[in-house]
């Protein structure tokens, strides 16, 4: 096996999807703990507090107690290189999560045992399903009273329409949650630690006949375990690795991220079963990760991560070849050749300079202002990876600058924040960029925008919400703003000078589409 193949084979790049509060931050932290990237896990709160210190605009997250940004963390575990793509849980940022999922090779679906499959999990699950990536399920908070494990498997099948195969089974529930039974090896792992979760939890292993193990489990719990296992063997789905690979069967693990119970067992199985980076579709056909030419795509852009330096980072998922710091690459959409002199990788909570990276890795590269989400970079070829679809905006607002002296900062701020993909910017055909109309998927995006414009660009704005809920890109012969205009709609231009028409509702759109057969209305912008 060549060096690059070895490096590819040991990589696992995945994202955690869940409903807010299911324990994603806690689980991420515990994975880092077991990966040796953290020596002592603090409480989730203190970790969150530390993160906020990194970037001042995250103050907003702190106030609201939500996680807005996605971060990328890398650590080594048993010879594997693990890349965790963290994603915001709040639904208003689901587009950000969606893009992050485009950069992941598999997903971990985290479920709160007491709540089961929640709304946000459902949405994100469907994105993974569409992409056909393997989905691993971790049922969390087993240290609390929750739903019965068999009912939870039933819920996966009924609500998400996915088969499941429990890799392990909980021994006891709630405060009696004492260990797990691993089905493949028929081994029991009992947790003997205090369960505070700050350090790796010691375990004792044995099998169902081992007196030391049996003696440590109360009789009722033991009987329940045996009954459950019998039922699973009889009525459960069969394990099938091909179905797992296609995302049609999810391996299920039980545990408690808070007390660390089951985290190690999960991680050990996960690294064996989760896929290494594989080939990707492009405009020039399949691109194999081991092909020598470096290539990747931008899935996230973030400005001002460090308030002391007004820089912008583009997060690139490497798809093929080897990245070397200082290498020259081509930005395919513009044909510009740039040197990747500054590049960052994110280990635990620190960003460090990276000299070499492989397919599956995420690097943060300095953005001279040319990158947009979805852009492909290569060493010399002109192919592009599949575009990252945008969510159609559903909320629209006109933004006004309060102090005309700040016009330059205002235009720059809006431009940078739209390039990050948080909001989409449109303008009136006859006016410049003074009072742009912004489109967003969730109302929080306007709040973040307002907050960041004030704190990062020193610009005061007012936001005038508009009564539209649907945007369509209009294409056709000889279209003009005038020909598209009606009593009820608003005709705007996007940054590529495409016409965008806003409608009040679906009904208004249908009515107009019926009358204007010469116009094709698209849900997404036409390709650049
Ligand atoms: P999130 O990133 O998915 O939003 O969740 P996060 O890790 O912040 O966890 C949400 C809450 O759930 C936290 O409580 C956390 O301690 C708790 N939690 C996470 N994993 C477990 C688990 O395995 N068992 C139990 N019992 N609790 C768990 P918190 O910060 O104290 O806040 P709150 O409970 O007041 O909301």
Automatic annotation (TrEMBL):
Keywords: Cytoplasm, GTP-binding, Nucleotide-binding, Protein biosynthesis. Residues 9-278 form the Tr-type G domain. The keyword Nucleotide-binding applies. It comes from the Bacteria. GTP binds at residues 18-25, 86-90, 140-143. InterPro entries: EF-G-like_DII (IPR053905), EFG_III/V (IPR035647), G_TR_CS (IPR031157), P-loop_NTPase (IPR027417), PrfC (IPR004548), RF3_C (IPR032090), RF3_dom_3_sf (IPR038467), RF3_GTP-bd (IPR041732). GO terms for biological process: regulation of translational termination. SUPFAM superfamilies: EF-G C-terminal domain-like, P-loop containing nucleoside triphosphate hydrolases, Translation proteins. One of its GO terms (cellular component) is cytosol. The keyword Cytoplasm applies. It is found in: Cytoplasm. Increases the formation of ribosomal termination complexes and stimulates activities of RF-1 and RF-2. It binds guanine nucleotides and has strong preference for UGA stop codons. It may interact directly with the ribosome. The stimulation of RF-1 and RF-2 is significantly reduced by GTP and GDP, but not by GMP. This is Peptide chain release factor 3. The lineage of its organism: Bacteria, Bacillati, Bacillota, Clostridia, Eubacteriales. The gene is prfC.
């Amino acid at each position: 096996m060549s060096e690059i193949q070895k490096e590819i084979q040991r990589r696992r790049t995945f994202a955690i999807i869940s409903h807010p509060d299911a324990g994603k931050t806690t689980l991420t932290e515990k994975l880092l703990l077991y990966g040796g990237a953290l020596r002592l896990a603090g409480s989730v709160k203190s970790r969150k507090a530390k993160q906020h210190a990194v970037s001042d605009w995250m103050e907003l997250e702190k106030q609201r107690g939500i996680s807005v940004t996605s971060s990328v963390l890398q650590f080594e575990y048993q010879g594997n290189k693990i890349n965790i793509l963290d994603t915001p849980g709040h639904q208003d940022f689901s587009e950000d999560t969606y893009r992050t999922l485009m950069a992941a090779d598999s997903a971990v679906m985290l479920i709160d045992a007491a709540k089961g499959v929640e709304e946000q999990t459902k949405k994100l699950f469907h994105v993974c399903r569409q992409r056909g990536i393997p989905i691993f399920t971790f049922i969390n908070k087993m240290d609390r009273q929750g739903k019965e494990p068999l009912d939870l498997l039933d819920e996966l099948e009924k609500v998400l329409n996915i088969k499941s195969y429990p890799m392990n089974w909980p021994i006891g529930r709630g405060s009696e949650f004492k260990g797990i039974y691993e089905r493949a090896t028929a081994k029991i792992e009992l947790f003997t630690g205090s369960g505070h979760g700050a350090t790796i939890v010691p375990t004792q292993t044995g099998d169902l006949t081992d007196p030391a193990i049996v003696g440590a489990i109360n009789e009722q719990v033991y009987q329940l375990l045996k009954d459950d296992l019998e039922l699973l063997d009889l009525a459960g789905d069969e394990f099938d690795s091909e179905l797992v690979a296609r995302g049609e069967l999810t391996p299920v693990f039980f545990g408690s991220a808070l007390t660390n119970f089951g985290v190690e067992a999960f991680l050990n199985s996960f690294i064996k079963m989760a896929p290494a980076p594989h080939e990707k579709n492009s405009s020039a056909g399949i691109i194999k990760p081991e092909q020598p030419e470096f290539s990747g795509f931008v899935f996230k852009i973030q400005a001002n991560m460090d308030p002391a330096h007004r820089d912008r980072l583009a997060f690139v998922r490497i798809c093929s070849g080897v990245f070397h710091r200082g290498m020259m690459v081509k930005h395919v959409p513009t044909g510009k050749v740039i040197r990747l002199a500054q590049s960052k990788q994110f280990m635990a909570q620190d960003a460090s300079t990276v000299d070499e990276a492989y397919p599956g890795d995420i690097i943060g590269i300095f953005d001279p202002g040319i990158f947009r989400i979805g852009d492909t970079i290569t060493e010399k070829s002109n192919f592009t990876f599949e575009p990252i679809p945008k969510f159609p905006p559903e909320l629209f607002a006109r933004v006004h600058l309060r102090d005309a002296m700040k016009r330059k900062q205002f235009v720059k701020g809006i431009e940078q924040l739209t390039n990050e993909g948080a909001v989409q910017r449109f303008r009136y055909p006859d006016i410049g960029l003074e009072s742009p109309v912004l489109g967003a998927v969730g109302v929080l995006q306007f709040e973040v925008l307002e907050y960041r414009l004030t704190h990062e660009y020193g610009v005061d704005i007012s936001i005038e919400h508009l009564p539209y809920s649907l945007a369509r890109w209009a294409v056709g012969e000889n279209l003009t703003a005038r020909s598209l205009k009606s009593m009820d709609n608003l005709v705007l231009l996007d940054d590529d000078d495409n016409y965008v028409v806003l409608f009040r509702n679906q009904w208004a759109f249908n009515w107009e589409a019926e009358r204007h057969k010469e116009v094709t209305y698209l849900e997404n912008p036409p390709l650049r």
